[in-house]
Automatic annotation (TrEMBL):
This is Heme ABC exporter ATP-binding protein CcmA. It comes from the Bacteria. Pfam families: ABC_tran (PF00005). SUPFAM superfamilies: P-loop containing nucleoside triphosphate hydrolases. Transmembrane segments: none annotated. Residues 13-218 form the ABC transporter domain. The keyword Translocase applies. Keywords: ATP-binding, Cytochrome c-type biogenesis, Membrane, Nucleotide-binding, Translocase, Transport. One of its GO terms (molecular function) is ATP binding.
Amino acid sequence: MTQTPHNGGPDRLILHDLACFRGDRPIFLHLNAELSAGHALVVTGRNGSGKSTLLRIIAGFVRADAGEILWNGRDRDDHDLPWRERLHYLGHRDGIAGELSAGADLGHWAAILGVARAGRADRVAAALTALDIPHLAELPVRVLSAGQRRRLALARLLLAHRPLWVLDEPTTALDRSGSALVAGLIGAHLDRGGMVVTATHLPLGLGDRVIGLDIEEAAP
């Protein structure tokens, strides 16, 4: 695919002719999608169809066996800023340290994400409030329910701005109010010019800002 220059306009992500194999068996072939700022790519397909693998390829944890991923017209790795510093990835595992309090765990992630020490406590408090869990700040993570742990993991999205969110079933373990909260977070991120790639059955309520990608259509 010919790479076209990006002239400072809105961010754009292109998946071009991606293929992935598990051993000798192809999971998907010739997968294509284009996503621009303010839009969400919703990946659907049955269990085992390769949704999580695709998200991990986009996030840079797994290499595609063929094809390319372009960010603003250039190979996603051909940039001064490392690719993973352009995105937040939330997988099935919450990545939470059980020996810490909820607030301390989030503070740990804030440091990893480069939030300045001077503003870290305020950023953590704001993220906990946005996920409706400020009352959990001093509780050990090990005593939290699965839904509370998921909210804590989602709070990391708000600690530092990253234009692309890659979310694998973000509403896992959440009740109806939690799922609605996630939809609101995604909508607000898109309003700010962000992008989201997600595998979810959650009705996001975003109208024509949602682009659907049925991964099974790219299956052999």
